[in-house]
Automatic annotation (TrEMBL):
Taxonomic placement: Bacteria, Pseudomonadati, Pseudomonadota, Gammaproteobacteria, Enterobacterales
Keywords on record: Bacterial flagellum, Cell membrane, Cell projection, Chemotaxis, Cilium, Flagellar rotation, Flagellum, Membrane
Molecular function terms from GO: cytoskeletal motor activity
GO biological process: bacterial-type flagellum-dependent cell motility; chemotaxis
Gene Ontology cellular-component annotations: bacterial-type flagellum basal body; plasma membrane
Gene transcribed to yield this protein: fliN
Compartments it resides in: Cell membrane; Bacterial flagellum basal body
Protein name: Flagellar motor switch protein FliN
Similarity section: Belongs to the FliN/MopA/SpaO family.
UniProt key word Oxidoreductase: no
Mode of membrane association: Peripheral membrane protein
Organism: Buchnera aphidicola
Protein's job: FliN is one of three proteins (FliG, FliN, FliM) that form the rotor-mounted switch complex (C ring), located at the base of the basal body. This complex interacts with the CheY and CheZ chemotaxis proteins, in addition to contacting components of the motor that determine the direction of flagellar rotation.
Record InterPro entries: FliN (IPR012826), FliN-like_C (IPR001543), FliN/MopA/SpaO (IPR051469), FliN_T3SS_HrcQb (IPR001172), SpoA-like_sf (IPR036429)
Signal peptide: none
Amino acid sequence: MNKLKKKHNPEKVDHPINNVNNVDITKKNNFEKPMSFSSNEKKDKKEIIFDIPVDITIELGKSRIKIKELLNFSKGSMLFLNQKKEDPLKIFANGLLVAFGEIVVSQNTYGVRIISIKNS
């Protein structure tokens, strides 16, 4: 049984902390200074951001129904929403609420007039 017992030597423990090389923990900051950009480069970066597409979703309202009712839908079925006709519509950009609006009709298409913008 004496062969199975080993003395524990804490100085020779193989631990990831003991294997860290080339790190000076006495330095406060091991990072380089941030790069500075010229005004033309900043303008180019803004132009890139302005060209990113955004999905806009307009929410008329919500309704909660049972699957049985959903399966009974047919042409002409009515689904009532929780919003009133005069309540503002919610306008989302990439899933985030950004504004409120109201429905407008122009010729044969629907549109939304912005009535307020969320302040965040």
